[in-house]
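To close the section, here is one more complete example, presented without commentary so you can practise reading it yourself. The ligand is guanosine-5'-monophosphate.
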Amino acid sequence: MASIFSRIVAGEIPSYKVAEDDNYYAFLDINPVAQGHTLVIPKREVDYIFDLTDDELAGLMLFAKRVAAAIKAAIPCKKVGVTVLGLEVPHAHVHLVPLNKESDMSFGGDKLSLPAEQMQDICRRISEQFK
Ligand code: 5GP
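Output:
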């Protein structure tokens, strides 16, 4: 059965899409650790990020770099942090999180649940900055 993220790419499950190209897809994390928390995935379903081919991994990180630039332009922050966990969803993904302080990157604590209008607004602001 396809992963939940493959179903998002296929449009079977809705997402706040920030950007996509032929091989990669970026969308807001549904339970962000900070406003603007974005996931970047390869469209090809592979569980463990280091099982991607060298080209796929490089392409994923280069695509994430462009998404991070868009986040940085759209969301007030000092830097955009990068994390790979992958313990919950078995489809490789990179977390991009706007950082103002170290604890903004904390995955062990409470997560946010933002109203749909706010998620839409954040999504629009980031996607408008994507180049
Ligand atoms: P991880 O696998 O990296 O430990 O965590 C998976 C991440 O995916 C979590 O931050 C969780 O909030 C997010 N997530 C899980 N299911 C969905 C979903 O259906 N849609 C979106 N946008 N994010 C999800």
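Once you have examined the tokens, check your reading against these statements. The chain has a mean pLDDT of 97. Helices lie at 4-9, 54-74, 116-129.
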